[in-house]
Amino acid sequence: MRYQFKFRPYQRKFLRSLTTNHGKWDIREGIILRLTDESGKLGWGEIAPISWFGSETLEQALDFCRQLPVEITDEIIFSIPDELPACQFGFESAQEWGSEFLSMPHAQSFSALLAAGEAAVNQWETLWQKGYRTFKWKIGVYAIAHELEIFESLIQTLPAFTKLRLDANGGLTYEEANLWLRTCDNLKANAELPIEIEFIEQPLPVEQFQQMLELSTSYETAIALDESVATLGQLAACYQQGWRGIFVIKPGIVGSPSRLRKFCHQHQIDTVFSSVFETAIARLAALKLAAELSQNNRAIGFGIDHFFEQEETWFQSLWNNL
Q1: Active-site annotation holder among 138, 188, 262, 288
Q2: Choosing from 136, 163, 250, 288, which is the catalytic residue?
Q3: Quick check: 232 and 254 in contact, CB under 8 A?
Q4: How far lies 184's CA from each of 110, 200, 238, 303, in Å?
Q5: Which of 140, 94, 98 is nearest to 256 (CA)?
């Protein structure tokens, strides 16, 4: 198949800075792709890299798009190198655009992201009213003693049967990871607090895989890998080294959707699909993959709408004005 290819860079400002162990993030930048096939059918895709998470940079993605001819083929799309995982996802998604999507998940199927620090204590209620029942809170941002105090407040105020995920973005020391896991195990043992700590996400840096593997067998509280499995290559490597815990998959940067499908079908891994703060274009493609490949009915990490202004016309204006 041959396609006419066009692309547009975009910028979207966060309503408030997103603070993680990696630092502050103020503007989401990416690229919207349009493929027109020989019958005139349009396919949309999105390249939404996060270089500090393991994908290519935005500039590398733009350079790749700029060097492509106006007419591209399936062969070009499937030969995009592994060093450009967000490009692989964007182009294959555009190629698959319009394929059947069963139904959009309800808010209860989503995990809503809470701000780091004390803001989370006042933020969850609005999101609960919108239907969210699983929340993810960023840790490893402030001093651990302070975060444990906030955590205590948070679990005392959250309604019964809420699920909470703690995401360290690789920002804990080994001692801090043990302290968080012990704290969560103690909470699990307390029947008077019916809050479920579903898992701690990426407690240690990527290079400390063996320590995370060890911790995963030492505590009741589950550990999920995120930065460690950012791309398909990393995901396969962690599986080969013995990881059988939870894999957080960010479709927008993991790489080729067709190869991801093959891996998940082959190995039946325990997955949580998660956002990279993409627009509705990449989100639709990512949700289709999540619906197809999720195994254990875990909430998917796409509850991030409250981080952006809801601009109904931004996409049309992006495409028409450039």
Answers
A1: 138
A2: 250
A3: yes
A4: 22, 9, 25, 23
A5: 94
Q: Please write the tens of the pLDDT for every residue from 294-309.
A: 888 899 999 888 888 7
Q: What are phi and psi of 22, to 5 degrees?
A: -80, -10
- Return the structure tokens found at 125: 């209620």
Tell me the C-alpha distance between 131 and 106, whole Å: 8
d(CA 132, CA 300): 11
Q: What SS3 class is residue 161? A: coil
Higher local confidence (pLDDT), 193 or 267: 267
| Cβ contact 44:51 at 8 Å | no
Beta strand segments in 194-298, E: 196-201, 223-225, 246-249, 270-273
Residue 138 a catalytic site member: yes
Task: Give 171-198 pLDDT, tens digit per residue.
Answer: 999 999 999 999 999 998 887 788 999 9
